[in-house]
Amino acid sequence: MTTQTLSLGSNPVLEIEQVSGDVIMEGWERTELQAQGDNIQIEPSDGSLNISCDGDLKLSMPHDTKLTISYVGGDLKAENLDGPMNVSFVGGDAILRNLKGQVSLNGMVGGEAKLENVNQVSMHTNKNGAGPDISDHIRRKVEQATRRAEQKMRRAESKIKIAEHKLHRHAQIRANIDVGRWKWNVTPGSVKPSGVNEPVSDEERMTILKMLQEKKISSEQADKLLTALEGGE
Q1: Closest Cα to residue 229, out of 165, 183, 140?
Q2: What span, in angstroms and rounded, lies between the C-alpha atoms of 61 and 24?
Q3: Quick one: 27 exposed, middle or buried, by C-beta within 10 A (0-12, 13-18, 19+)?
Q4: In terms of domains, do 129 and 144 share one?
Q5: What does the DSSP assignment read for 122-191?
Q6: Pseudo-torsion of CA 79, 85, 89, 95, nearest 10°?
Q7: Last residue of a domain, one of 93, 109, 133
């Protein structure tokens, strides 16, 4: 997870353009924006800042920030904000607390809308589910994020296959070898799976869990795969 901090100055305006996971937003006393998440993109556009993120996103911002929220794939949680907020699409729950400005829910909330101490609220939901502000360019960004996630999963599966191959070779080396009437147990301490020294990613863990759920591997094999991916014996 990375953290980005930007000075906003007076009359801050933010657009949450596309976030694949959950969004947590809170107001604070500083005149800065602090964004925490993975692969955050922040771009200036017509006096506002456009923010996108491939995973979960946490934002701290001045209380009077004006907000437009176009697409959140997971849950949205916002609290302690005074500026107006326009929400178009939330895939999960929308949890709104201590909001003094006008809140407009103009699109779809896939889960529950939980409001506490929210002064002004208007709701307009399209019968087809998606709100009017879910434009084509946002749909394209969602598709791009999905493709990136699929690519990460394929890379994770490739690393797991490499780890499986190394485990198989390591097992062969550790096997007992019969030579005439002598039996040798070859277990050289220097033999370790190599080439995978990075920490195990979430995608790799998800892939191993999926293989375990589908009974393609046993829990012992899953344990060995994780160990191999981490560069252990």
Answers
A1: 165
A2: 11
A3: buried
A4: no
A5: EE---TTSS-TT--HHHHHHHHHHHHHHHHHHHHHHHHHHHHHHHHHHHHHHHSEEEETTEEEE---TT-
A6: 20
A7: 133
Tokens of 88: 């178009």
Residue-number span of the structural domain to which 59 is assigned: 2-133
232, 224, 228: which is closest to 162 by C-alpha?
Answer: 228
| pTM given for the model | 0.55
Q: Which residues make Cβ contacts (< 8 Å) with residue 35, sequence separation at least 6?
A: 3, 4, 5, 6, 42, 51, 53, 57, 58, 59
pLDDT (tens digit per residue) in 54-93: 899 999 999 999 999 999 989 999 999 999 999 999 988 9
Q: Are residues 26 and 63 in the same domain?
A: yes
Terminal alpha carbon distance of the chain: 28
Residues 61 and 94 placed together within one structural domain of the fold: yes
In this structure, are 150 and 113 located in the same domain? no
Q: How many structural domains comprise the chain?
A: 2
